[in-house]
């Protein structure tokens, strides 16, 4: 999927203090301040490089559906 600076996206964020707690968070796609030729995701006052390792969704509904699928499967395993 191709993103541009200014896009609004949704991703899963894990609680750094409790790794089994996560939520869907809105984020902005921005130019990476450390390398303006690359994009980053800006969330919670932090820049994360935009890589294939991030599960990014273009709509809140899509993110919440994936969240339910992933965490409901995880809790029943």
Keyphrases for this structure?
77 residues, alpha+beta, five-stranded antiparallel sheet, 1 helix, 5 strands, 43% strand, globular
The average pLDDT value, as a whole number, equals 86
Give me the number of helical elements: 1
Per the principal axes of the C-alpha atoms, what is the gross shape? globular
Number of domains: 1
Low-confidence blocks of residues: none
Percentage of β-strand residues: 35-45%
- Secondary structure class reads alpha+beta
Rg over CA atoms: 13 Å
Counted beta strands: 5
Record the strand order, biggest sheet: 4-3-2-1-5
Pfam families: SplA (PF11132)
Organism: Ureibacillus yapensis
Protein name: Transcriptional regulator
InterPro entries: Tscrpt_reg_SplA (IPR022608)
Please sum up the structure shown.
This is Transcriptional regulator. It comes from Ureibacillus yapensis. The chain is 22% helix and 43% strand.
Please give the structural blueprint:
Elements: E1 8-14, E2 22-32, E3 35-43, E4 46-49, E5 56-57, H1 60-76
Antiparallel strand pairs: 1-2, 1-5, 2-3, 3-4
Pfam families: SplA
Organism: Ureibacillus yapensis
Protein name: Transcriptional regulator
